[in-house]
Design brief:
Pfam family, one: HEM4
Structural class: alpha/beta
GO molecular function: methyltransferase activity; uroporphyrinogen-III synthase activity
Helix content: 55-70%
Order of helices and strands: EHHEHEH
CATH class: Alpha Beta
Protein name: Uroporphyrinogen III synthase/methyltransferase
Keywords: Methyltransferase, Transferase
Domain Tetrapyrrole biosynthesis uroporphyrinogen III synthase: 2-57
Number of strands: 3
CATH architecture: 3-Layer(aba) Sandwich
Length: 64
């Protein structure tokens, strides 16, 4: 599972490891703005219900 916390982390990770490496993973976006950047790159993701540490933990627990 890879967690993205901002659009810039999405762009930086794509430039570092390539889009195909990211698409192979389970992806979580902290919120809708980050999810929008992932969507622009055709990367599917789950979005945290609450845009906080607790929201991240809850989403991780839901996925596992």
């Amino acid at each position: 599972t890879v967690l993205f916390t901002s659009p810039s982390t999405v762009r930086n990770m794509i430039s570092m490891v390539g889009i195909d490496s990211i698409k192979e993973k389970s992806i979580i976006a902290i919120g809708p703005i980050t999810a929008e950047e992932l969507d622009k790159n055709n990367i599917k993701c789950s979005i945290c219900d609450e845009y906080s540490i607790n929201g991240i933990i809850d989403k991780l627990l839901d996925l596992n």
